[in-house]
Amino acid sequence: MPPSNSKQQQQQQLYQPFRPPPSSPLPPQFRSLDTARRIDVLANRLGLWHEYAPLIPSLIQEGFSPSSIEESTGISGVEQNRLVVAAQVRDSLLQSSSDPEIVHSFDTGGAELLYEIRLLSAQQRAAAARFIVDNKLDAKGAQDLARAMKDFPRRRGDKGWESFDYALPGDCLSYMYYRQSREHKNPSEQRTAALEQALSVAETEKAKSRILEDLKGPSGDKGEQEGNVELAVPVPVVRLQMGELAESSRVVALPVCRAEDTGGVILEAPWECRSEGEFGVVVAEKGWNRWVVLPGWEPVIGLEKGGIVVSFGDARVLPWKANRWYKEEAILVVADRSRKEVAADEAFYLVAVDGGDLKVERGSALREMAVGESLGTVVLVVRPPREETEDQLSDEDWE
Q: Distance between CA atoms of 251 and 231, rounded to whole angstroms?
């Protein structure tokens, strides 16, 4: 029995063929060209990129596919998409009354730069385009800038956020570097380098002052600095943000144990986990039931061998002060099993309590108990993502 007209209409509404996004209007010099000449223009890149980019949607509307266009012109499907989207971004800049000189700065080789700011609003695009030109950013720099501007509002409440201006691209990018600096040990060359990078792009004096405070460290004489907790704590504490994994260019998979497990379980966990092939297939030396994937933060990026994660159901078990962070929330403690020696009083280590439950202890406490070897050195503490925003745990909140 043939389908009814209503069913046919529903199917037509549900299953529509692919249509390219609205394209920029064809420049006058290309409007009278037949199909063969349009292909010739694309194949030989005759003109500026934003002039011939609209030819791609026009060919698709005539029945060409991205693969057939690639075969005829040598322009890959990825590059076709980049050209079309970048041309749309360029048009939006012109329509938003951006400085024509800024827009024309992208006429030569600017497609990949404009493509990176496609997800920004019209106002943000204009500000980002000027910043890209003024600072001579490459495609990677433009990508970082766009991500920083999109991410900045979600960081409200994070440490130092209020010192940076959301309306200024440089401050948004600076805050991203500032936040990344807190993922490194303090003090460390990586942390200092990230802070210096943040300082180099910051636009407001308030942001620069905040960064300089972290660069210079606490004031006071040597004795005061030695007793300052911020200098003594080398373990970063970060809250995983919503969508952060999806935006990470590199991730790390690590085996997970529960706090209720014994030290023996830690020893049984896979020692090595690596990515193989073009698809980054995760390969472990043996099977394991519990895994976690974390963004490629600096403290964990080198833990393909010996890395382990312990999940605690209550953050209050860790040795941090209870006056501000006395709350029950799950946390992940990332440790390096290749560093078992209790080598520093100010460091934190993963140990088994009387051979039973797992616990995090400060090096000084372990030395008092004459414990010279741990299950691993703690390198990072991860707090769970939350819809609401709040401050990250600062170094001085540790005991």
A: 29
Per-residue pLDDT reduced to its tens digit, 118-139: 999 999 999 999 999 999 999 9
**What token pair was written down for 151?**
């991410």
Distance between CA atoms of 163 and 278, rounded to whole angstroms? Answer: 41
Give the CATH class of 237-397: mainly beta
The single residue listed with the structure tokens 């140990």 is 351
CA angle in degrees (0–180, nearest 5) for 108-109-111 = 115
Q: Give the whole-angstrom CA distance, residue 277 versus residue 265.
A: 30
Tokens 């941090």 found at = 320
Q: Which two tokens stand for residue 162?
A: 């209020």
Q: Which residues pair with 284 in a beta bridge?
A: 273
The pLDDT value given to residue 389: 44
User: In the 8-state DSSP scheme, what is residue 66?
Assistant: H
Residues 308 and 291: their CA atoms lie apart, in Å, by 10
CB 230 within 8 Å of CB 186: yes
Return the ∠ at Cα 199 (arms to 198 and 203), rounded to 5°: 100
* Residue (of 113, 152, 141) closest to 129 by Cα position: 113
pLDDT above 90: percentage of residues in the chain: 43
362: three-class secondary structure by DSSP:
strand
The pTM of the full predicted model, rounded to 2 decimals, is 0.56
**Burial 313-329, CB ≥16 within 10 A → b, else e:** eebeebebeeeebeeee
Q: Where are the domains of the chain?
A: 5-136, 152-217, 237-397
As a whole number of angstroms, the distance between CA 328 and CA 322 comes to 11
Q: How many other C-beta atoms can be found within 10 angstroms of the C-beta atom of residue 379?
A: 23
Indicate if the pLDDT at residue 3 is higher than 70.
no
| 22 burial level (CB within 10 Å; 0-12, 13-18, 19+) | exposed
Amino acid at 19: R
Residue 227: pLDDT band (50, 70, 90) is very low
Is the pLDDT at 322 greater than 70, yes or no? no
Distance CA 88, CA 310 (A): 48
